[in-house]
Amino acid sequence: MGLFKFTSRPLLLCLPLFIGMQGETLIVAVDDDGHFTERITHFSKCYVKDADKDIIEAVKLKGRLVKSGTITHPYPFCPRSKTPLIYRAVPSWFIRVEQLKEKLLENNKQTYWVPDFVKEKRFHNWLENARDWAVSRIMDSIESFEKLSGVKVFDLHRHYIDHITIPSSRGPQFGVLRRIDDVFDCWFESGSMPYAYIHYPFENVELFERNFPGNFVAEGLDQTRGWFYTLMVLSTALFGKPAFQNLICNGLVLADDGKKMSKSLKNYPSPMEVIDQYGADAVRLYLINSPVVRAEPLRFKKEGVYGVVKDVFLPWYNAYRFLVQNAKRLEVEGFASFVPVDQATLQKSSNVLDQWINSATQSLVYFVRQEMNGYRLYTVVPYLLKFLDNLTNIYVRCNRKRLKGRTGEEDCRVALSTLYNVLLVSCKRWPH
Ligand SMILES: *[C@@H]1O[C@H](CO)[C@@H](O)[C@H](O)[C@H]1NC(C)=O
To answer: Which residues form the Methionyl/Valyl/Leucyl/Isoleucyl-tRNA synthetase anticodon-binding domain (predicted)?
Structure first.
């Protein structure tokens, strides 16, 4: 349920404690308006912030005053009403996570994380110390919502309840209470992603059943106690399963100077600028080749993205350009236009360099597929670099004569077709 804005009175910062069995003996000392309750007999009805003098006086009368004075210290204030905040116990709904602990630890074992130490250490330890999860944000039931607002509620989705207001308990001159934008415990919503995004169970039951648990999720290390956790708690409570099969946990992307990226400091280049300048593929390769995919921090450097362009895309592109130039040359020189020789014929090429690069290309496909299936993104770029080095510095360089037609038309077509095939296979998306 939503958070309601208390217009023009101290907003009480609510620290949810227990409900039901656990909190029955708890003494609630302060009421909704910040006044001591009947339980605090001597000061009941007194506003907590005005009670200091009387309390000091009472302690003094009993002869127990050790020292009286003033200490200056920071204090939390409501950013909206600028009034002081206090901590106060309120009834709250909890999810009994503690009862699920064994099952959570068991489900964690069924998932695959990159890097694995985040799963084995950080997340495991967090689950071992799991606490009941307070999800209420003030309004505790449909019943009390209806009672306070005088409106019958049939559906808790925002568009059905956002317009509902609650009259101020202090009288009509104080206006009404409205829901503010924050809803519920927002972690509950993020943890509900696998169901909520397709409106399960109200729709898409089959789609859901086919795709749950999800193949993989990816987020930052800081989500161990956030999203990764709430996904796991809710799926365990609802289905006894983890919500994902694989998880990539990434580190933080920091600014060039090692500090947090900050909009006000502008200590990082605009992502769109970098993409416009070097291309999205270069940014993508730069990131998957960085410590970020091993949950370690990365200092984002524009020069690093340029390095990818220089080391990966330019050589790759130059090999392609060389192919196109020489394919066109065939026509210019009066031969039939270039049509790649079919695979079966190519595989039979007796040229040892053709055989070698064909084999290296197959190995590349095999390697990338295997590593991507293992979610080890960081192994892919170093291998690709080595492959491109082999292609451009060995294959193309050693075959210039053949590719330029100096060893006869037939041999030229075989060499061009081999290069064509290598470039095609190395840049296309391979079906599983
Ligand atoms: C590059 O060529 C060397 C020499 O043949 C070979 O050992 C290596 O596996 C090749 N690497 C790739 C990634 O193709």
So the answer is: 354-425
For the CA of 356, the nearest atom of ligand 1: 5
Structure tokens at 128: 């071992």
Sign of CA dihedral 336, 339, 345, 351: positive
CA 386 to ligand 1 center in whole angstroms:
7
For position 181, what pLDDT does the model report?
A: 60
pLDDT reported for residue 9: 25
The predicted-structure confidence for 40-91, as pLDDT tens digits, reads as follows: 888 999 999 899 999 999 999 999 999 999 999 999 987 767 888 888 877 6
**Closest atom of ligand 1 to CA, residue 390:** 1
Question: Which residue has the least CA distance to atom 14 on ligand 1?
Answer: 387
Q: Is the pLDDT of residue 1 over 60?
A: no
Q: What is the pLDDT of residue 66?
A: 94
Distance 226 CA to ligand 1 centre (A): 43
Angle between helices 352-373 and 409-427 (to 10 degrees): 10
Q: Which amino acid is present at 27?
A: I
Span(s) in the chain for CATH 1.10.730.10? 307-427
The stretch 320-332 carries a mean pLDDT of 96
Please say whether the beta carbons of 251 and 295 come within 8 A: yes
CA 362 to ligand 1 center in whole angstroms: 12
Q: Is the Cα torsion angle 125, 129, 132, 133 positive or negative in sign?
A: negative
The CATH classification number of 3-23+92-138+184-250 equals 3.40.50.620
Looking at residue 31, its pLDDT comes to 86
Q: Domain spanning 307-427 has what CATH number?
A: 1.10.730.10
Statement: residue 338 has pLDDT above 60: yes
Nearest CA to ligand 1 atom 4: 390
Take atom 9 of ligand 1 and give the residue whose Cα is closest: 360
Residue ID of nearest Cα to ligand 1 atom 12 = 387
